[in-house]
Design a protein that fits this description.
The protein is α/β, with parallel strands linked by helices. The chain has 7 helices and 6 strands.
Length: 190
């Protein structure tokens, strides 16, 4: 794969649950490494896989040795909360954890940022704040949830509004079709 289409751009990969967003992002990361790109940071905001949903980027030890990788502890609000208030508390804590991750970035002239699951950030954060963190980075590839799997809630509406704002600020957006077999009926949280 040639990364010329991703270099010096902000790319957003969107899709529903199990559409291959993380896999596609990992493929792009691998090709950057194969091309000899230096100063790559991977910020993995995805929660651990739960009920067939979510999951961290599958990275080998060899790849991890060539990048700066960080993955804060993230709890999936819509999959684990019992009430909407609890979902908001989890979303705010996830946001706090992610902001701390940005604050603790080593002082390097990063060339490439890979962000797995920016949706988690946008549940309590906002697109403008995320873009502030990304402004100095020439090449950004990120992915996020944009689908119909999760039922309607205030948290889901906020995430969608902020994702729409992020979409309008990216150089290119790739939409992946749903590949998985999970249905909205299987999801009962917020």
């Amino acid at each position: 794969m040639n990364n010329i289409n991703f270099r010096n751009r902000k790319t957003l990969i969107l899709g529903d649950v199990n559409s291959g967003k993380t896999t596609r992002t990992a493929e792009i990361l691998s090709s950057f490494i194969e091309e000899g790109e230096q100063a790559i940071a991977v910020l993995d905001f995805a929660p651990e896989k739960s009920g067939g949903v979510g999951g961290k980027m599958p990275l080998s030890e060899e790849i991890r040795g060539k990048i700066w990788y960080v993955s804060p502890r993230i709890v999936p609000p819509r999959l684990t909360a019992k009430t909407e208030d609890e979902a908001w508390e989890m979303a705010r804590e996830n946001f706090r954890q992610i902001e701390e991750t940005f604050s603790n970035l080593p002082p390097t002239k990063w060339q490439v940022f890979i962000l797995n699951d920016v949706s988690i950030y946008l549940q309590a954060g906002n697109a403008d704040r995320l873009l502030f963190h990304l402004t100095p980075i020439p090449t950004v590839v990120m992915n996020g949830y944009y689908g119909g799997f999760f039922k309607e809630s205030a948290l889901s509406r906020r995430e969608r509004e902020e994702m729409d704002a992020l979409i309008s600020s990216c150089d290119q957006v790739l939409y992946l079709p749903a590949l998985g077999s999970l249905t909205r009926k299987q999801q009962s949280g917020f």
